[in-house]
Design goal:
Layout lengths: L17 E5 L3 H12 L3 E5 L5 H8 L3 E4 L11 E6 L5 H14 L2 E4 L12 E5 L2 E5 L6 H12 L4 H20 L3 H11 L15 H10 L9
Parallel strand pairs: 1-2, 1-4, 2-3, 4-5
Antiparallel strand pairs: 6-7
Length: 221
C-alpha cells in the first residue's frame, strides 16, 4: 500500500510576504509564477535561471540572488520552496535551517523534506482549483489539471468576475442575509460541470505489469 498523505488543504495569504524559491529551472519558474500571481514578494536564490525568471527579475517582479543558498536567505521569509532535485544535502540543510526558524518548507518531489505539498493548480479568471492525489500519482494530478483547464473558457472568467461584482454590490445594498443569499443562489442556478472521469479499460493489467517489471530497458538499449 502506498504511503499516502491527504494533507490539510488551505489557501495561504502570501500577499506582501517574503517567499523564498531555491533553484533556477522550470520548477522554480512555475513556483515563482504562482507566488507572483498570489502577490508574494518572491526571492529567487540560484546562480543560474531560465530566461523568464531573468526577465521577471529585470522587471522587478522578483529579487534574484545570483548565488547558491545561504541560511541568511531565510530571514523574514514566510515559506521556502526548494526546487532543486536530487540534492539531499541541500534538502537537509534547508529543512534544518527552516525548522530552526519556524518556516514552512516544500522540497520538490521529496515529501520527507517537506512540511506541505504543492497541488496541481487550475486557473480560470478568479477561479483556483487545487488537485492532489495524496502523492499517489502526481502524474495523474497534472493530467487532471490539463483536462479541467479545457472546461473553463473566457466566458467563464467573465461570468465569475461578474458574480464577484454582484456579490459586492448586494452586500452594500441589501442588508438582509436571507434575501441576499436567495438572490445569489439564483445567479448560479443551472451552472455546473458535466461528464465523468474515464479510467483506462485495462488499468488493472497495466498496474500489474508495472508491479511485475523489475528491469525495464531504455529505448535503444
Amino acid at each position: 500500500m502506498a504511503d499516502l498523505n491527504p494533507l490539510f488543504q488551505v489557501g495561504l495569504d502570501v500577499r506582501d510576504r517574503v517567499c523564498l524559491v531555491i533553484g533556477g529551472g522550470g520548477e522554480a519558474e512555475d513556483k515563482a509564477a504562482r507566488l507572483i500571481d498570489a502577490g508574494a514578494r518572491v526571492v529567487l536564490v540560484s546562480p543560474e535561471s531560465t530566461q523568464f525568471l531573468e526577465d521577471w527579475a529585470t522587471q522587478g517582479w522578483l529579487e534574484w540572488r545570483r548565488r547558491h543558498y545561504e541560511p541568511g536567505d531565510l530571514d523574514s521569509a514566510l515559506l521556502v520552496l526548494n526546487t532543486v532535485r536530487c540534492n539531499t544535502d541541500l534538502g537537509d540543510r534547508v529543512l534544518a535551517d527552516a525548522e530552526f526558524r519556524g518556516i514552512l518548507v516544500n522540497t520538490y518531489d521529496d515529501v520527507s523534506r517537506s512540511h506541505f505539498g504543492m497541488a496541481a493548480l487550475v486557473k480560470a479568471g478568479p477561479l483556483r482549483l487545487s488537485i492532489s492525489t495524496s502523492n499517489a500519482s502526481p502524474t495523474l494530478s497534472r493530467r487532471l489539471r490539463q483536462d479541467l483547464e479545457g472546461l473553463f473558457d473566457a466566458e467563464f472568467g467573465e461570468y465569475l468576475e461578474a458574480l464577484g461584482n454582484a456579490r459586492t454590490h448586494l452586500k452594500e445594498t441589501i442588508h438582509d442575509f436571507d434575501t441576499r443569499r436567495l438572490i445569489l443562489h439564483g445567479l448560479v442556478e443551472g451552472a455546473g460541470l458535466e461528464g465523468r472521469f474515464a479510467v483506462p479499460a485495462d488499468w488493472r493489467q497495466r498496474i500489474e505489469a508495472a508491479l511485475a517489471a523489475t528491469d525495464i530497458k531504455k529505448p535503444g538499449e
